[in-house]
Amino acid sequence: MSKLRLRFKKTGRAVYISHLDLMRTMQRAFARAGYELEYSKGFNPHPQISISLPLSVGAASLCEVMDFSLKTEEELSSVPERLTRQMPEGIEVYDAYEATRKASELKWLEIEGLFEYDERSKAEMAEKLTEFFSQESIVISKKTKRGMGEMDIRPAFKELSFETAAEGVKLHVLVSAQEPTLNPQLFCDALEQKAADIAPDFAKFTRIQAYDREMNIFR
């Protein structure tokens, strides 16, 4: 069968499910829903499912993308409901269709974040955060596969804004999904390294939507 694609949400308690555990959860959900996944060939066959951009533990998403292949032809319109019934709380499959685009075409992620401050003025923090992230260059130290390295995160995001809310300071931003990949947690790392006085006491992030280079919704 041709390559198929799911879009699903991962929110609530499910944000603490790691990527590897999520893959196992997906495999079990397919089996319980009565779907037989296609397996790869060779000495170590594995189910043909893959998530385009693994999500960090603790982060939520409304737009996760997963590719998969089934051994038999199925009515795709029934896949979301059947799978969701087998999922743990917080994971909801809401679309299933034939994949016509390569995952490499996914370029931008729309992110919403919340920076929480126990004591400091939210209005003052929003103003200072806007000023800090408006710099032309923000070079930080980050861990890579080869050890510690440096990255200028400024070219990897755009359309950033902050506003105050009852819970804290809300962030809205577009971050590069691939080449380079910008994990929103790096915003907190940048503050801790360069402006500790405005680093939040706690932060959480949610993926809202995924786009291609032309800012069309990626499907």
Offer a concise description of the structure:
With 219 residues, the protein is an alpha+beta fold. It has helices at residues 19-32, 79-84, 122-133, 185-194, and strands at 4-10, 49-51, 60-68, 91-98, 108-116, 139-144, 147-152, 157-164, 169-176, 202-211.
Oligomer: single chain
Low-confidence stretches: none
How widely separated are the two ends? 19 Å
Number of helices: 4
Rg of Cα set = 19 Å
Query: How many individual β-strands?
Result: 10
Question: What is the arithmetic mean of pLDDT?
Answer: 94
| H/E topology pattern | EHEEHEEHEEEEHE
Strand content: 25-35%
Which secondary-structure class do the elements indicate? alpha+beta
The level of helicity is 10-25%
So what's the overall shape? elongated
Major sheet attributes: 8 strands, mixed
Question: What does it look like?
Answer:
With 219 residues, the chain is α+β, with helices and mostly antiparallel strands. The protein is 19% helix and 34% strand. The chain contains 4 helices and 10 strands. The chain has helices at 19-32, 79-84, 122-133, 185-194, and strands spanning 4-10, 49-51, 60-68, 91-98, 108-116, 139-144, 147-152, 157-164, 169-176, 202-211. The strands form 2 sheets. Strands 1, 2, 3, 4, 5, 8, 9 and 10 form an 8-stranded mixed beta sheet that branches. It has a two-stranded antiparallel ribbon with strand order 6-7. A hairpin with a 4-residue loop joins strand 8 (157-164) and strand 9 (169-176). The radius of gyration is 19 Å and the shape is elongated.
Topology of this structure?
Blueprint lengths: L3 E7 L8 H14 L16 E3 L8 E9 L10 H6 L6 E8 L9 E9 L5 H12 L5 E6 L2 E6 L4 E8 L4 E8 L8 H10 L7 E10 L8
Parallel strand pairs: 3-10
Antiparallel strand pairs: 1-3, 1-4, 2-3, 5-9, 5-10, 6-7, 8-9
